[in-house]
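[Meeting: bench + compute handoff]

Bench side (C.D.) handed over the final construct sequence. Compute side (W.E.) agreed to return the predicted structure before the next meeting so the bench team could plan truncations. Sequence as handed over:
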Amino acid sequence: MDSTKRYERLRERYLNGDLDRRVFLGLIGAAGLAYGVRTPFVREARAAASEVRFDGWGGVVSEAFREYAFEPYTEKTGVKVVDGTFGGGDEYLSRVKASQPGEYNIAHLSGVFDYARYAGLGLASELNEDNIPNLKYVIPKLVDVFRPITDGKISCVPYDYGTTGLAYNRKHISEDEMKEKGAKILLDEKYKGKIAGWSDWRTRIWYASLQTGQDPNNATDMDAVWDAIRTHRDLSLKYWSSGAELMSLLAEEEIYVTEGWSGRIYALQEQGHDIGYMDPPNGFGWQECLFVIKGSPMPECEELLNFMLAPETSIAVAEGQNYPPALDPQKVDLGKKISTLPAFDPTGTLSGLTFADPDYWNGNEAEWSKEFGRIQKGY
């Protein structure tokens, strides 16, 4: 059989759905090298990436990605997922800005806030949504919020959501006390040395806004906010910098109360620790997305995103991470465990969560992050 007929037969099988894209490109790539076939598909096969880099939050979150998404994807396609981690969004963004195009590919980012930052820095890609048919299962609201930022296109797919609420040791703090004091419990002198908080300027300002009776998306008295942050700093044992550290501080009873991520607190409860969790009024709701950075191998990235949005994959990852998936519960049966997770919304509207206004927070980032850095150092 000559090379042209071989190519045409393989192409016909691909178009009929008998071969997936990865197998097809591999076969014609081999044919092109052996027989000198020259087609656009062969050029694509030669250029096809053998690996995709994915960076996330580490701990149980990355473990769930690895077990339920990356390893099955590699087994199916042959494309390796290089699994990296970061402790915070600002630190990771600094790495990306200093990198070469294509060095970083997909990042597990904090929703609209980070999406707008990356797009503003020229780091946004443009996804071909036709290559991600499983996007149809995602809660529409979670997708639509990204489109105005990138001229109607998207550079990410939503993947999960949760809250940054109040975590407390039930041996030392009652549910009634938590309901009475809410966010102000983080400023209670009674618990000095047993309080902690995340070393993230946004979270500190959000909670200080609540503690001073202000709208976290429109604080008008920033002097009061900074004073509350200083008070919290002086009462705290420390600022934690990762989910693993958060869990350790609570599990070892080094602290009794902190704000914390809903999924990590659920994991502690599953492990048998007597840790309570509550979202105060106007508590911090968020969604996370899988953002594809400009310069990445788009076909492989889109293929991985589609694989990860398949209901069976997304649900398995969500159960491992303890964060509800971005899948619409009106379209997909999410099973039993998902409905028990903190922040889960069975309606798919997410109307009970308060999300950060990206214009408000990004517009003040330079000034506020600098001021919080000074406060961290004791000023």
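W.E. noted at the follow-up: The radius of gyration is 23 Å. C.D. will use this when planning the next construct.
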